[in-house]
UniProtKB/TrEMBL annotation:
This is C3H1-type domain-containing protein. Residues 12-37 are annotated as: Disordered. It comes from Effrenium voratum.
Length: 201
């Protein structure tokens, strides 16, 4: 099946030959190769062209991009090539208040992980199976780096995190952790969206 072929391609490509990988580096940890990223993107755009919705809508509502502001006016000029979500978001995305943002800003990377990873894990069963498998891989890689939940991570913050989408929570990892972890989170989200595009969900 075509879809299966593409998904297999994405899953298997990184773990096959990779001449630059040192013998001490565990498999599956290396960065996505640029050619592969381009390949994923071309599949993604092709999938978008087949559907009536936009590129940014794939993975809705957990993995999609922000809702498109043009849709509420005279339609979106970018149509299906729009990088924002064209599907209705009945529950507006809850973002963090300033106090919570300042709190996360002041934490060490391990403490940010301790706060955000449990919320991501709770959200995982809302993803379709291929994206959930990729999410699980990311969480397993990051969890050993999490410290104990810091003082001040109160119920209000936990509640707000519990209302955020998977993509929204991933955004916190890209904003409040190290450059290295931010790259990992971005790459994983990109792949999860591509997988959503391929299965058109
Ligand atoms: Zn959406
Ligand atoms: Zn749009």
């Amino acid at each position: 099946m075509d879809l299966r072929y593409h998904l297999t391609f994405i899953d298997e490509k990184p773990s096959t030959e990779s001449p630059k990988r040192s013998s001490s580096e565990p498999p599956g940890q290396e960065r996505e190769q640029p050619e592969e990223a381009r390949h994923v993107e071309s599949l993604w755009w092709r999938a978008a062209a087949l559907g009536a919705r936009s590129v940014g809508s794939f993975g809705h509502p957990e993995l999609c991009c922000r809702p498109c502001v043009h849709l509420t006016r005279n339609g979106c000029p970018a149509a299906e090539e729009c990088l924002y979500c064209h599907l209705p978001h009945d529950v507006s995305r809850v973002s963090l208040d300033k106090r919570s943002r300042n709190f996360l800003e002041g934490l060490r990377v391990g403490a940010v992980l301790a706060v955000v990873l449990p919320a991501l894990r709770q959200r995982m069963d809302r993803l379709h199976p291929e994206a959930a498998a990729r999410a699980k891989e990311l969480l397993q890689a990051l969890e050993p780096e999490a410290e104990v939940i810091p003082d001040g991570a109160n119920r209000r913050l936990q509640y707000r995190l519990g209302t955020m989408t998977f993509a929204g929570l991933m955004g916190l990892l890209t904003r409040y952790t190290s450059d290295h972890l931010a790259d990992q989170a971005r790459e994983a989200l990109h792949q999860m969206r591509a997988l959503s595009a391929l299965c058109r969900c």
